Automatic annotation (TrEMBL), chains A, B:
<dbReference type="Pfam" id="PF02481">
    <property type="entry name" value="DNA_processg_A"/>
</dbReference>
<dbReference type="InterPro" id="IPR003488">
    <property type="entry name" value="DprA"/>
</dbReference>
<dbReference type="InterPro" id="IPR057666">
    <property type="entry name" value="DrpA_SLOG"/>
</dbReference>
<feature type="domain" description="Smf/DprA SLOG">
    <location>
        <begin position="110"/>
        <end position="302"/>
    </location>
</feature>
<comment type="similarity">
    <text>Belongs to the DprA/Smf family.</text>
</comment>
<protein>
    <submittedName>
        <fullName>DNA processing protein</fullName>
    </submittedName>
</protein>
<dbReference type="GO" id="GO:0009294">
    <property type="term" value="P:DNA-mediated transformation"/>
</dbReference>
Amino acid sequence: MSTPESWAYLNRVVEGPSRALQELLAAGRDADEIADGVRRRASWLGGLAEETAARHDWDRAEQDLAAAAEAGARLLTPEDADWPRLELDRAFGFAATGMSEHVRTYQSDAVTPHALWVRGGAVTPALAQSVAVVGTRAVTRYGVEVTRQIVGGLAAHQWTVVSGGALGIDTAAHEAALAAGGTTVAVTACGIDRVYPARNAALLDRIADVGCVISEYPPGTPPQRHRFLTRNRLVAALTRGTVVVEAAWRSGALNTLSWAEGLGRVAMAVPGPVTGAGSLGCHERIRHGRAQLVTGADDIRSLLGPAGAVDAAEQYELQFAPTAVQGLSRNELRVFDALDPGVGRAAQEVSAVAGLPLALTVHLLVDLGKRGLVAREGVEWRRAEE
Amino acid sequence: MSTPESWAYLNRVVEGPSRALQELLAAGRDADEIADGVRRRASWLGGLAEETAARHDWDRAEQDLAAAAEAGARLLTPEDADWPRLELDRAFGFAATGMSEHVRTYQSDAVTPHALWVRGGAVTPALAQSVAVVGTRAVTRYGVEVTRQIVGGLAAHQWTVVSGGALGIDTAAHEAALAAGGTTVAVTACGIDRVYPARNAALLDRIADVGCVISEYPPGTPPQRHRFLTRNRLVAALTRGTVVVEAAWRSGALNTLSWAEGLGRVAMAVPGPVTGAGSLGCHERIRHGRAQLVTGADDIRSLLGPAGAVDAAEQYELQFAPTAVQGLSRNELRVFDALDPGVGRAAQEVSAVAGLPLALTVHLLVDLGKRGLVAREGVEWRRAEE
């Protein structure tokens, strides 16, 4: 385990994402070693030498960690159990196949983050079943109405709604998730201690209360155009699919959609009136087969697969699974495994052991119950007798 | 040439479309001979014997022709120069390839009509550059607004708008074409002397004034459900493509769209708000790749190709045409050929010789002029010096 200070230092002097840093990590050097190498301009830094040339002596790891703590945030690193490894590996592993033109164009951004600043609850459970809902800042009444309908339907089925915390559709999505008692996650493009846009201060606090706010940038970082684009890749990477609700011709939301494509996620768009320009971008993507047309939460859920399902490869394996338990998807298996044979557990306890949100856990338990794999006795759940 | 009475008799005793009748015609028997055969129950009638068993003595050709004349209509047969042969041959020729599931399901309807009753002007010029615009009877304000925008844009580029004369989107389409000074054609599902729906009496008169009203059924025929479906195939067959503007789940307009697919025409649908059910059918077709998403007249025109273009096969030939004149599309060639070398002609005269509407003729002349193939001198057009 490297020290948090090393990760914080690297996060400060290397603006993510950095392919050079990932290559050093992949080669087996840990964060302490790399941080030390950067400080003393080691010969083995490769591309990281140039990337850190101007910043390497900006050593303020302790101040950054303190500023984050002050803002109620923590630093999450790839060494933490809560690091969303599965999501990031899947997304950037797909990107590495070079199948997407978008990824080929923005190659330097098609790299996993090296650290995340987080305000709020655990990241991995919140993202276990998540979908991005994004769109234009210049919303119409139609866009807001559709966002509410869709997010309400997703939240009712325990889907976490991830968005960018921006004004317009992002705000409508977060608010609708909160109103429906769902979990929601905001991925921002500035330091975790900064509030942008300013008028969403209270909203971001409420998001941190039930889900979390995530940023790839060290405290104090101002939101800048290139960071919005980099942030968009993270929104697409952390979720199973991205839905663009309303986007005109050059909306940034379409960039998130391109990332979803490039990272092997499901890209979806909602059509709208052709009498305004609000849905032009959505129509364009649908027309060119770059996004699937969705009209509501049911469409989205069916494209993303059942509660626990993950992707085509896994589906293929499940299809040939010889036993019911082997046929369980990842999230279902997490819940099933959280029940020791012969021991009853309350849903709350199952949720804690499985590392999944309580509501999603109950949802999956009920589902497993219908398939005869688990049974409820009073308030306790146990594996069904085999 | 067979007599009109023979065709009128066949149109009365054989409810179109009839594959058995088409087979006899294809085998070289003319309408006089077939009519005579039906009257005397000839041995060579094949399937037509059964089709006409109950009706063969219903011999009222003269009354039908008189009733049509009374209503200002005439009988158009495959022997007339104005018979829309090219359109019908292309559509039902494509259907005969059996490529479409819709056509396989409704095989008995995938047959060309044997006669058409027409009220108004010439059919072939009106259809030379035409597109069907159809939709639900249960229109929303959105549907009407979109129809007006689209039809206005099509009419401005000399496209004839064909529809079914029904309430709702059909009415909006016809009215918008008339308001824009365009040509419009109604294909109805009842006798040419009947007005259905009754409240569209004045509209149908206005359509006949600038374009035409067409029916496959003999005078007096009431509109019935199966006839609407058969009529829909004719709307799709006579046009280069069909646009569904607004259609809920089970709208009849989707049937026209299926025919467009089945007859090798371009199937198009306009998206709309997902907050109502009005565009459900459109979204469903787009989602399944059974209709192209279009948002306005420009999209439609670009899918249907340039003013004179017809289809992929023709495009392929044009691509390898060694001279500019050989590179002309069908309609362009009709206009060019209407100008004799060395002789100047007014556009009105060119239009008459080419058998194309005046506005379309002018449109094409201007286009040919830009390409240096024709030149205007005062009010006259002539071929450019070679």
